[in-house]
Sequence to fold (518 residues):
Amino acid sequence: MLGGGVTKIGEHWSKSLRDLFVEAAFKALEDSNLELKNIEAIYIGNMSSGELQGQEHLGSLMATWLGIPGVAAVKVEAACASGGAVFHQAYLAVASGLYDCVLVGGVEKMTDAVVHDVTAALVMADDAEYTAFTGASFVGLNAIVYRYYMEKYHVKQEDIALFSVHDHKYASNNPYAQYPFQVTLEKVLSSPLVADPIRLLECSPIGDGAAALILCSEKFARENGIRPGVEVAASALATDTISLMDREDLTTLTATVKAARKAYKMARIEPQDVDVMEVHDAFTILGVIHLEDLGFAEKGSGWKLVKEGEIEKDAKIPTNLSGGLKARGHPVGATGVYQVYEIYQQLTGIAPNQVEKAEIGLAQSVGGVGGTVVVNILQRVR
Amino acid sequence: MMVSTPSVPRVWRERIIKYRLIGSRCTNCGKISYPPRKACPRCGSVNLEKISLPKRGKVLSYTVIRAPPRAYLKYSPYIVALIELENGAKILAQLTDVEPEEVKSGMIVEAVFRRYREQGEDGIIEYGIKFRPPIT
Fold:
């Protein structure tokens, strides 16, 4: 990995989908000391440009707007995991030997639409005919998991909602976070209900943003006299049934378990070797479940890691030091790329909340209620 | 626009499955799925038979939708539940004829035919199965 760049996440009224992507792409090129002519292919992660902007065909669009029509360029979509999935595809493109230098980015422009239309777009992550048909929102589906988890493991909401407080704490000094301020547990628990039991301050927000990275082959680095500081150690993607109706256990995302197992094996590491990670906590309950499914806690006890301070910056498994989806923000198709960029920052020593001597970092990207999960692992080049 | 892409045939072709609760049973592993499949989501077997699903079950978990997608705005708030039918199949559906504060996980419910949404002012009305506390 040669470098990356991101836009601040927020309500970018004056910037379009293409403006955001181009901004992040130029930042990534500058950070990598490369020029547009070095780019052989562009991979663009995005979920809802069709629904929210009436725009598809992002490959050609972004190639045109970057001034390099002619290169290979394609959009990759896997709902909320589009960012993780696009990184997976870009990695495959370089690892296969077909391309030596690619631009991989993600972009989502959510504030062009009003909230009820964004809600309709997001639930397209699940089965349109049999899940969205019921009127369930995406928040609602996660709320069903949340209530089931609390009742199965006898866990209190106040212990799960702590994940939001954690995220906001670290977002408060992240310059590109959407909500760089702290919140109290009391404030989270007294915020309005969105889909019972999920409250507003337990939900990742609606926002606009783009992130981009440059990946190259060892050959490209050698021929251009570049010594990259960070390499991709693993990239694994797994799916699960798209709907909760087919799940045996509502409290485990088996796609996380499968993708993580593959990624750990590919990187030749164990969970305890991970120095820092970014997990896809679209809702507080998901943050807790991910800690379990990624191998850091027993089922039903992920919340204890949060409560006992084990996911803090200097603790056992530093998690979401960017502010996570809750407070860094969640411009859907860009989020997985932001996460990988944040791990890149950690491994190169430039993160806002820097973990000392971080060598290995993990980013987990989740689509739907776990219908797709991507686990990407980076490591510092020794 | 009330539904993303208004369509008559899309609703028509699913009517038997949705109105009569048709599922499938895997003759290899026994998994029962709703809606019916060509391949079992648990074991991958293609030996499946269509079955009519039981019309009673219990609430596994539920939520109250307070910020709905546009097509459901006028019904808000409403309850969506994951229901385990008497033969173990799971189905997501709205609960009706019950207030949110009366719902409990584990409560017994029965199927009832109800309206779900409309495809705008001029479009068709989409119906389906909701569940309510048993009165029969």
Notes: Chain B has a mean pLDDT of 95.
